[in-house]
Amino acid sequence: MANTNNTSTGKPKIGGAIFVGYDGVAVPKDAKSELTGFKELGYVSDDGLTNSNSSDSDKIKAWGGDTVLVISKGKEDTLQFKLIEVMNLDVLKYVYGAENVSGTLETGITLKANSKQAKAHTLVIDIVYQGGVMKRIVAPNAIIQEMDDIEYTDEDAVGYAVTVSCLPDTEGNNHYEYIVKKGDKE
């Protein structure tokens, strides 16, 4: 039977919802473990998070028009979000690459924009469902695929809207999703 208690919105975890980890971080395997070695990327715009997880396939039709076979041609898995803490050093290092960011707000920050290859990383997104249910999305082999134009206007927060490709890990999985009721044992 249908149950309205199984519906929810997806809100960010208080104190930050998107985390990045680089070489050597332990990839979380559940929704509740503490994240060690990860950097929190601050506020995300109210557009939230979009996960495009779509297959590409060809339909083979028989004479007469019936579809008789579907051939998988691949699957693209991306995460899209806009980071709006534009003075957060961890955000700047994530977007531009750590080697392209130097200084502090107090001493002055220098950003170098170039075409150096982005580094693969682990991305973790913590989401809170209603009723105290936690969801964690873990992309162990993520890489920034694209960044939208940076707009400086009076009407909107400056930010870095990125599309992140979730590439297969050593087990062939693009990302993992873990869901648990807060307070329950793993």
UniProtKB/TrEMBL annotation:
Domain of life per record: Bacteria
Organism annotation: Anaerococcus faecalis
Name by which UniProt lists this protein: Phage tail protein
Pfam families, A to Z: Phage_TTP_17
Database matches in InterPro entries: Bxb1_TTP-like
